[in-house]
Every structure is written in structure tokens, then in C-alpha cells.
Amino acid sequence: MAELEDGWRYAPAAVSHMYWRRKEQFQFACDTYREWVLFAVTEGRFRYRIEERSGEAGFGDVVFCPAGAAFHREVVHPVSFHFYHFRWVPVASARGAEPRPVGAVHVLDHSRLAATYSYMEQLRAADEERRLAGVQELFRDVWGLMCLEAGAAERLSGTEAGTAIDPEMEEAALWIRRHAFEPLRMKDYSAGKRMSAVQLTRRFQAVWGQTPMEYLTSLRIERAKTLLLETRLTLDDIAVQCGYENGFYLSRVFKKKVKTAPSQYRRMHSL
């Protein structure tokens, strides 16, 4: 959040919202907007360039673009995302706020983020007034989560605790995101980096607040949710696309994390 005087700062307020499903390409490779916009990715990946910032965005990433800035983008894998126009408005709050972001911000708490996206999904059938009110409230929740994590990252960076971000663990998180839906074993990754599985787990959790397997599972479960709602694939087929051996194992993990069976989730949330 951008800070003002006397304990006031700016926070984003949604003006409009749209959800795009599995876009294979953007209508325009580059576009500009009269207001700030953000893309909150729920599935797939796309490349972007905004001012001097560039990179790839996938699940867990929220990409901010200022009003009037050129937003270059290209789909890497069919991408689904929440698209917001928003404005910055002053709100009363404590000091120590984060500046307005440009480019991608990665949300670490995938479980909470996935739950928020699930609530947004449930609003699809609501009337327009209720839907817009609901997504604006959830939009504020995502922003609050990013600010909480930004504060934790500042402490880890040494401004408060005198420690440093672990670049090897940032690399590990990127590797997991890139290979999340393939059969993989974290011990193979740790061996390649000449560290034990215990060392990897301890260092990863110190930076990201969760173990590598928890991080991987959150990505796979979110993809499973999308495939359950947007396709008629069998559970075994979905399991393979999420990096699991079979539907039985996926069902066991899904039920543990989501507190409901995949078949029940599909019935409850499909229109």
C-alpha cells in the first residue's frame, strides 16, 4: 500500500471485474488501460512486460499494470485469470505500508488464495449487484494477504531481523512451479543441489512458510479443482494432468486438503 501522511495510505478499490477461462491467446499482444488493472492467474501461464518489469505469471501470481502503461503479454499455456480495473483510494491504517506494485506479486499462501478463488467461483451464478459486491470484498482480501506477506518478506530481507532472503530457495520455488504437474521427487532436486532433503525442507519453510511438498500440493490441488469444474475428464485422467499416478491417490490428497471428495466438489460447484 502507498503511504500518506497522518497514518493514511492508499488501497486498491475494484471498479469492474471479469473472469477469463483458458484463453489461448490475448486479443491484443500489447494494450493500455485508462485505469490500473490486475490479472490474478488461476490456471496456465503467460509472459508479460510492463515498463522495466518482465517475467512469467502462473497460479499464485497477481500482475499489476499502472494506468497508461503498455502491457505486453503472451500466453504460454492456456490461461485463466480474474481481470480487475481498480483505483487507489486512501484508507486509515497503521504505518509501514508497501508501495504500489508494478508487475507480478507472488502470493505464498496458496491454500488461502485457492479458497478465495473458490468463493469467487461460487459468485458466478449471483445477480450482478451481489456478484460485484462479493468480488470487491474478496479483492480486498487478496490485497490484504499480499501486504501481510510483503511485511514478512521485509523482515526476512534484513530490515528487521538482520537476515537475508535465500536465493537458492527462490530458485527451488520457481523450479517447483515449472514442473508441478510432472512426476517429480523433491529428493532428486535436493541431491542435484548437493543438500539433503531435510536441509531443503528446513530452508524452504524458513523462506516460504511451508514445506516444498506443501507448496507443490497446493499447485496441484488448484489445477485439479479447475479440471473438475471445466472438463468432464475422469479422476484418473485429472490425476495424470496434475502429476499424480492415479485418481485414488489424488482423491485422498484432495479430500485431506479441501475437506471434500473430488466428485462432491464437482457436483457442488458446477453450474
TrEMBL record:
<keyword id="KW-0804">Transcription</keyword>
<dbReference type="Pfam" id="PF12833">
    <property type="entry name" value="HTH_18"/>
</dbReference>
<dbReference type="InterPro" id="IPR037923">
    <property type="entry name" value="HTH-like"/>
</dbReference>
<protein>
    <submittedName>
        <fullName>Helix-turn-helix domain-containing protein</fullName>
    </submittedName>
</protein>
<keyword id="KW-0238">DNA-binding</keyword>
<keyword id="KW-0805">Transcription regulation</keyword>
<dbReference type="InterPro" id="IPR050204">
    <property type="entry name" value="AraC_XylS_family_regulators"/>
</dbReference>
<keyword id="KW-0010">Activator</keyword>
<feature type="domain" description="HTH araC/xylS-type">
    <location>
        <begin position="170"/>
        <end position="268"/>
    </location>
</feature>
<dbReference type="InterPro" id="IPR018062">
    <property type="entry name" value="HTH_AraC-typ_CS"/>
</dbReference>
<dbReference type="InterPro" id="IPR018060">
    <property type="entry name" value="HTH_AraC"/>
</dbReference>
<dbReference type="InterPro" id="IPR009057">
    <property type="entry name" value="Homeodomain-like_sf"/>
</dbReference>
